[in-house]
Every structure is written in C-alpha cells, then in structure tokens.
Specification:
The complex is a heterotrimer of chains A (about 190), B (about 425) and C (about 325).
Chain A lengths: L1 E8 L4 H14 L3 E7 L8 E9 L14 E4 L19 E5 L21 E4 L1 H8 L6 H12 L4 H11 L2 H17 L10
Parallel strand pairs in A: 1-4, 4-5, 5-6
Antiparallel strand pairs in A: 1-3, 2-3
Helix pairs in contact in A: 1-4, 2-3, 2-5, 3-4, 3-5, 4-5
Chain B lengths: L1 E5 H11 L4 E4 L6 H13 L6 E4 L3 H13 L4 E5 L1 H6 L1 H9 L5 E6 L13 H5 L6 E4 L3 H18 L3 E6 L7 E5 L3 H7 L16 E2 L8 H30 L7 E4 L6 E6 L2 H14 L4 E6 L1 E3 L3 H8 L4 E6 L10 H8 L6 E6 L9 H12 L6 E3 L4 H13 L6 H9 L8
Parallel strand pairs in B: 2-3, 2-4, 4-5, 5-7, 6-7, 11-12, 11-14, 14-15, 15-16
Antiparallel strand pairs in B: 1-8, 6-13, 10-12
Chain C lengths: L7 H4 L37 H16 L4 E5 L3 H6 L11 E3 L5 H14 L6 E7 H6 L2 H10 L4 E6 L40 H7 L4 E6 L3 H11 L6 E6 L3 H4 L6 H11 L5 E4 L2 E5 L8 H5 L6 H4 L5 H17 L5
Parallel strand pairs in C: 1-2, 1-3, 3-4, 4-6, 5-6
Antiparallel strand pairs in C: 5-7, 7-8
Helix pairs in contact in C: 2-8, 4-6
The chains are: A alpha/beta (about 190), B alpha/beta (about 425), C alpha/beta (about 325).
C-alpha cells in the first residue's frame, strides 16, 4: 500500500488532488481511497487530504500517519505545520515552489532524503501559464506520477478529463504534461 | 458498474436505482452530498417520476415523508446529528404508523459542544424509536444496504435507517460497484402499501390508542423487529444471488473461529480493526473481530454464537452512555447472558477523533493481558482532563468547559491527527 | 366570483333544507346527498364551533372535488373527538401524524398524489389555532413558501382547548386562559402580543387566503368552494367559538361568533396573491361589550368596577379592523 498526504490551504484544490489521484489509480485497475481531514471550511485555512493506493481492497480508515509521499501545495505551511510527520527518509516530497529547496530552508532537513525522490515544482506558475488560475494541484499530481511511478501520466490525464469540462480539462492536461517533464518524468516506452 | 467516486455520490446513485417517488430533505453536514446528488438527478430527469422537495427543517422532512409514504409513495430522506434530534418526534411517529420510509444517517456527533465529525451518538439516540438500524462498514456496503433497506422496509411495513459514518465514508472516494437498474428492479419490486390514503378506500390513520390497547400495539412493534431478525439474513442471501456480494446481514465475523479475544464494533472502524487483527495474528495472537450490521434488531443469538467461546470481548463504542459506558456493550452483554467471560467497553472516536492502528494495537495487547478497565476512553488526554477538573474546582463560576479546554488545546489547524 | 348575500327570509333555515331557494343555491349541508364526511357520533362538546365548522368545510370541499379528497389533521380537539379508538367519524381518507406537522404531512401527501399521477385527489390540512399559529407555524410557512398544493384550514378557538384552555398566539388580549389567569394588575392575556396568521399567509403571496366564521356558514362554504379548484397553497382561517373554553352557553355559539364579526373583532375578508380582494361588510356594528359579556373568559372585565380601560383598548382593536379591512360600507 502506498500512502500519500497532501497539504495545502482551502481553495487550492487539495481535496480534489487526492480524489483525482485515487481516480488515476482506479483507472489502472487498482484500489484507492481518498479523503480529506476536515478543519474549518474556509478559504486559506490549512487543509490536509489523504490518498491510499493498493492492489487489494483498502480497509484502513485512519488518517495517513506514516506517508510514503508528501505533497505540499503551499510552501507557506512550511515551518507552521508538521508537514513531514511520519515520512521516512526514503519517502517522496513534492513542494509547490518556484524557488529551490535550499531557498526554502530545507537543505538540512532533506539531508538524508534521496535526491531523485524530492522535487520542487513551480506548480502555481505552471497552472497560471496553462489554466489561468493559481491552482497548483494538477501540476503537482503530474510531478507525483513522475517521481513515484505510482500512477502513469496518462492515468492522471484521464482523471483530469473526468473531473473537468473539456476546455478547462485540456488546459490542465497541458499543465500536467509540462510539470511531468519538468519533474524529470519519463513516459513509458510503450506509450511514446 | 465499477466507479471511483465519493461515498455520498455512490449512495445517491444506489437510491436513484431504487426508484424513489418522493425525496424530501433538509441539509446538514455530512449528508448534504447525498441529497444534492439526488436533487440534481431529479432536475436533469435522470431520476424520473420523483418529487424532490426542499423542506424548511428536518422535522418537516420526516413529516413530508410521513405524508408521502402514507399516500403510497416510496419515500426517502437523510439527516444526521442535530437534524435527527430535531425530527425525533416524527421519527417515532413514522415507526408507530408503520411507514416504510428509508433514511440515511450520515453519522455525526451531537452537541453541545457543536461538532460536525463522526460518531454514533445520533443514531444511538433513536435506537428505540422502532426503526430498523443498519450500519455500513464500507462505502460498497453503504450503497448496497440502501437497496436492501427499501425491500426490508416495505416487506415489514417498518422504517429503516441506514447508518453511514460521516466524512470517513460519506466524503471518501472509494472504488464501488454501482448496481445496474435491471439488477435493482429484479431485487426490489414496486411498493405495495399496507395502508394508503385513497378516496376509493377511505381509512382513518393515526388514532389515539388508550390503555386498553396500547400494550398490544407496542408488543406488535416489538414482534415486528424480531421478525426482521429472520428477514435480514434472507434478504442478504437474495442479495448475494442478484449482485454477487455479501453486503448486509446481521453480523460478520473475521478470524473468530479460535479467537480468545474478539473485538466488536459498528461501522467503518471495523476495517481498521481487521488490519490490526491481521497484524496481531501474524504475531501469534488469537484474536478476531465481529462487525455488527444490524444494530436494531439486535442479533442476540448470532452474537452469542460468534462471541460465546472467547475468553474476552472488547466492544469499541463510538457513542457514550453517559455515566454507564456504551450502547453496543448492552446488547453484547445481553447476548452473552449466562456465559462467563471478560467484557471490556472502549469508548473511542467520539466527535471524529481518529481511531488509529497503533492505538488499537496497544489496546488489544492490554486486553489480552486483561489489563483494561471495564470502561476505557481510548487516547484520552489525561492531562487536559486533570487540568480542567482542577480549574473547575477552584471557582463556582468556572465558565464553560468546552471553551476552556479548547483554549488549552490551542490551534488545531497545524495538527494532522 | 362574488357570492350573492342571501337574507334569512329567502333561505329559511338549514334544518328545512333552505327550501325557499332553488336547489342550485342551497348550501351543501342542506343537500340530502351531502357526503357527511364528519359523521355523527363524534365526541365533541355540545355547541362545539369546531365540529360545526369542520362539517361544513369538509363537505363543501368534497362537493367541490367530486369526493376526491384526503385530509391531514393536527393533534387537537378535532382529531381527538373525531377518532376515539376504535371508532372514527371520518368517511374520507384521513391521517393524524403530530401536533406541529399537518402542513408538512399534507405537502407529502400532495407530492405523492402528483408523482402517482393522481392529481385529482386534493389535499386538506386542518388544525386548531395552537397547531397552526404556534407549533405548526414553521411547517405552515414552509408549505406556503413552496406553494404546495394544499388547502390549510385553521379552526381558531383562540387557545389550546384540548389540553385544558391554555393561551396560544391566537388568544385575544384580556382573555382568561389557564396560563393567563384573570388576576393581578394585568388580568388575562397580555395586550400587544399575538399573531395574525391570515396576514402572514398573505405575505407569502399564496393564491388564496380567507377568513370565515361559523356565524356565516354559507359564506364559509362559499370560500371553501372557491378555494378548492385553485392549485397551490390556500389558507382559510375560521373563527369557531368554544363554549367550554370561552365560558359561553353552548346554545350561543353562532350568536357569539356573529357578534365577533359584527363588532369588527373578527373581520371577514379574502385575499389573492397577497392583495385584499374583498371583505364582508358589517350589517349592524355592535360595541365589543355585547360580544365580550357573553363569555366568562372576559368576565373579569365586567366585575365591579367595570374595566373600562381594557374594554376601550379592545374596542380600539375592533375599530382599527373596521378601518383596515373596510368593514363598513
């Protein structure tokens, strides 16, 4: 079972991200569970969403306390919320930031982590570029696909197309494709 | 058809397949998405021959349902928490009138203090209203139970409450198999009411019954619940035949055959419990669990059969019988009447407090050593409690408890669980 | 459609079947073929205004709907005296659910008829003032707001009679009830409280609102007959004296009701979609004293010395009604 925890603020599509991730896994024939942690329902408040992916039915119903991957949609949460709680040094980290990981003050923290499992992606900028709205969830999902290989890019794309109306979906797909490439993702040979 | 979708939405789709004729509901977290989904389906025409009524309160919701059902229409509503209490009078009324209304409860705690998160205090408050109460363990079971509920309600002429853990199930995206219309039609025939308001055959419904007959009327309600004990397993067997999966029934056992310790619970926490049972089995423990689906009628015989040979039973309760312990424990204890074993009540998950694998693991370890109190509050912050008790002892005008504790707990937004 | 006022000498009494009128002009109750939906044998008190009003209203509704009618009743006198287990005096489909939900239950019945393609079956919700103006108010407003296809009839005897004459928001000022005792410096119900539900019904903009009284039974039948074919929410508020609760003689029920109308204290009017369309003019205005002195619930106003201050306040209410509802031609 692969467990992902997504941190962000209300209005950034954190919950939608977890849902889309679960749909992407479903489309590959796997089991997935996505759910939010509910705090006050207002824009700007810290929000957490969880996604579990497995090849068999998922019975567990607790919040993700020992994630395999953490996605941070809002870097202003760094140093405010214990974003990495429970994440082992073999874990994956994706941070939405145009600045480098060093600039975010994470150099020391990330010391023990595997470099190819940690990425900062300028997801908000990518979203603005392609979609015109500062919602970073889709580019980050593509980045997640790139570094974890838990879901294929095409599954993320399919999930996007299921979620959004056609015009908006295609813009998000474009953002996802660029993010995937930026994160160093390789499309599988059979899909080239 | 397999789908990855929000639990609420799956429930809405299942209900739509049941061909409801009147849907009337008032919004309350966490049931909103179910009713919104149904409302949209009615508006687009996807759910045809259905009246969707936006009522002005939960009391009105159940009342409209009473009128619609009494006039012979298949009727559905949904609520939770405060809303269930607000319609309490009508809930009893519906059962007393023998109307086969189906209602979803998105289980949520009851205030004060106001709390929107999951526990079972709401449905527990209505456990003796005469409704049948079924608890869903997963989102698949949540949608399946609604299909069974209409059938059960109409065969018995008794309302049925399907309890689905708020947020944990209602707002979780899960992989579910939504039944096809033909499958549901084959399982659920059209509603033929036992009584109906019809000018062709006038009847007076809702008379006052005095001391001369009230005992008998109530006995018949009791008898009806007992009949449900036989009908529920039959409907499960039929459901398996039509849909290919064993959703529902009175209760389900998990690795209990040779278990010394058996854990009993209602609803979604059973999933986590089963994970812990597997972990502990791998470590050599003889432990198993029982998930009770039909809480009303309480399956005394089936529970006795499942639990009677264990050395100890641990009941996980998501509701509190203040001063006493638990509600589920009462039924479990009664089912074990005459059998000597150690019974433990654990109050857990109140107001949405996560019930974690690690906490359960430790709890079950303690149970195996019989090092548990009769009633335990899982993961209770003893310091916080001690602080508040000391604070209250200092002054008579000590102010409100909840607010004082919150002040001490601080910002929760930065916490994960 | 305006009802032609018919003088007593033209109709003769109801007991002789209005025989001086042509058949088509006779009242529903005067007709041998009336449905008698609230049959005899019920347990109402002698002189009960509510039983009288209900009998007239429901039979008129049955005629207007070709006997395709279902009734929803709130808890109260009417429900209790008409269905003493194991008997019922109702000859129509009838349901009693709770005290405060008649309007909502009726909305549900109407929805069911719609969805089953049986829209010819009309729905009446009925309740006393307590069940309508107080505990049933939320459901009533909800029904009005949705414009559900229900005719709601309120039988207003101005207190919770079935439970022992307690004050409701329909209780008039100065009236003695069990919870507004006629003692102390301000005896009886407090002035400046109370609710005018017909006006509130008008504020919802529903198709038809009317007040009626058992003092004018033809007018009552006429209004029910007028309301029945209309689709959407309709509200009729009927003034029904309660001899027991009001302390009036059972034989005086219609007389007391007439004095309420003729004094201006109970105006008879009609409204459509929130606008007044008609009021019944007072034939011979009487001072409120004539009405009040027949009821023991106002006896404390006439105990020596006469409480002329309070009586004057009540007179002012009557005079205000006369102006507001244009009750004098």
């Amino acid at each position: 079972m692969f467990q992902t925890r997504i941190h962000g603020r209300g209005g950034q599509g954190v919950v939608t991200a977890a849902e889309m991730l679960s749909v992407a896994a479903f489309l590959e024939g796997r089991y997935a569970q996505a759910f939010p942690s509910f705090g006050s329902e207002r824009m700007g408040a810290p929000v957490i969403a969880f996604c579990r992916i497995d090849d068999k039915e998922i019975r567990l119903r607790e919040p993700v306390l020992d994630p395999d991957a953490v996605i941070i949609q809002d870097p202003t949460l760094l140093h405010q919320v214990e974003l990495f709680k429970g994440l082992p040094s073999t874990g994956y980290i994706l941070i939405n930031s145009a600045r480098g990981l060093d600039e975010l003050g994470l150099k020391e923290f990330l010391h023990g982590f595997r470099p190819n499992r940690v990425r900062a992606i300028a997801a908000t900028e990518l979203a603005m570029k392609h979609v015109g709205r500062p919602v970073p969830n889709v580019p980050l999902l593509a980045g997640f696909a790139a570094i974890t290989h838990q879901v294929k890019l095409e599954s993320v794309v399919a999930a996007i197309r299921e979620k959004f109306p056609p015009a908006i979906a295609e813009k998000n797909v474009a953002a996802a494709e660029e993010a995937f490439a930026v994160a160093g993702g390789k499309l599988e040979a059979s899909h080239a | 058809m397999l789908k990855q979708t929000e639990g609420s939405h799956a429930v809405a789709e299942a209900i739509a397949r049941c061909r409801p004729e009147v849907i009337c509901a008032y919004p309350i977290t966490p049931q909103t998405h179910i009713v919104e989904g149904l409302g949209e389906m009615v508006k687009t025409g996807e759910l045809a021959n259905c009246e969707f009524i936006n009522v002005e309160s939960e009391f009105a919701a159940m009342s409209v349902a009473i009128g619609a059902s009494a006039a012979g229409a298949r009727t559905y509503t949904a609520t939770a928490s405060q809303g269930l209490l607000f319609m309490a009078e009508a809930v009893y009324n519906a059962a007393g009138l023998g109307l086969p209304i189906v209602m979803t409860i998105g289980n949520r705690a009851i205030g004060a203090p106001i709390n929107i998160w999951n526990d079972h205090s709401d449905s527990m408050s209505m456990r003796d209203a005469g409704w049948i109460q079924l608890y869903a363990e997963t989102n698949q079971e949540a949608l399946d139970l609604h299909v069974q509920a209409f059938r059960l309600a109409e065969e018995l002429s008794c309302p049925v409450m399907v309890c689905v853990d708020g947020f944990i199930l209602t707002h979780a995206y899960d992989r579910v198999d939504v039944p096809e219309q033909e499958q549901v039609d084959a399982y659920l025939p059209p509603f033929v009411p036992r009584q109906a308001l019809d000018p062709a055959q006038p009847v007076s419904i809702g008379a006052m019954v005095g001391p001369e007959a009230f005992m008998e009327v109530r006995y018949l309600a009791h008898h009806k619940q007992l009949r449900a004990l036989g009908l529920i397993p039959r409907l499960l067997d039929e459901f398996k035949l039509h849909f290919g999966r064993p959703s529902g029934g009175l209760l389900r056992t998990y690795r209990t055959e040779d278990a010394d310790t058996i854990v009993v619970a209602l609803g979604s926490v059973n999933g986590t419990i089963q994970e812990v049972v597997d972990e502990m089995r791998a470590e050599g423990s003889r432990i198993g669990s029982v998930s009770i689906c039909s809480f009303r009628p309480f399956p005394l015989d089936a529970a006795r059969e499942a639990l009677g040979r264990a050395k100890r039973v641990v009941v996980i309760e998501k509701s509190l019988a203040v001063g006493l312990g638990g509600h589920l424990s009462d039924g479990v204890r009664k089912s074990l009447s005459g059998i000597v074993l150690n019974g433990y009540t654990v109050i857990a998950g109140l107001g949405g407090r996560p019930i974690t694998r690690s906490s359960l693991h430790q709890l079950f370890r303690d149970a195996e050593q019989d090092e548990l109190e009769q009633v335990t509050f899982l993961d209770l912050n003893a310091d916080l409690v001690a602080y508040e008790l000391a604070r209250e002892a200092q002054a008579r005008t000590s102010g409100p408890t909840a607010e004082a504790i919150l002040r001490r707990v601080g910002t929760v937004a930065s916490q994960i669980a | 459609m305006e009802m032609q006022p018919i003088k007593f000498y033209q109709t003769a009494t109801f007991t002789v079947g209005n025989r001086l009128l042509g058949e088509h002009e006779r009242s529903v109750q005067a007709n041998m073929r009336r449905t008698n939906s609230l049959n005899s044998g019920h347990r109402a008190c002698q002189g009960c205004g509510e039983a009288l009003g209900a009998r007239y209203a429901i039979d008129a509704a049955m005629r207007a709907s070709s006997s395709q009618l279902a009734a929803v009743n709130a808890t109260g006198c009417l429900e209790v005296f008409s269905t003493p287990y194991p008997e019922t005096s109702w000859q129509i489909p009838w349901i009693h659910s709770l005290f405060g939900n008649a309007a909502a239950v009726a909305s549900g019945v109407a929805a069911a008829m719609r969805v089953k393609g049986r829209e010819e079956v009309r729905v009446i919700a009925q309740g006393g003032d307590g069940g309508t103006t107080d505990i049933g108010f939320g459901c009533l407003s909800g029904m009005f707001e949705r414009n559900d296809d229900v005719l709601y009839i309120c039988y207003d005897n101005e207190a919770y009679m079935n439970t022992g004459v307690q004050r409701s928001s329909a209780t008039p000022p100065a009236a003695r009830t069990a919870t507004t005792a006629a003692v102390g410096p301000a005896p009886g119900n407090v002035f400046g409280t109370g609710k005018n539900v017909p006006l509130i019904a008008m504020a919802h903009g529903i198709p038809y609102v009317a007040t009626a009284s058992v003092a004018n039974l033809r007018d009552l039948e006429f209004k029910v007959t007028k309301a029945m074919p209309i689709r959407g929410s309709r509200y009729i508020h009927i003034h029904v004296p309660c001899p027991l609760g009001w302390g009036s003689a059972p034989a005086d029920t219609i007389k007391v009701a007439r004095l309420a109308v003729e004094s201006g204290l109970f105006p008879l009017f009609e409204a459509e979609h929130g606008e007044f369309v008609n009021s019944t003019k007072i034939r011979r205005k009487v001072p409120v004293d004539e009405y009040l002195c027949l009821q023991k619930r106002f006896a404390h106003l006439f105990a020596k010395p006469v409480d002329s201050t309070r009586i004057a306040l009540i007179q002012a209410i009557a005079d205000h009604n006369v102006k507001r509802f244009e009750l004098l031609g």
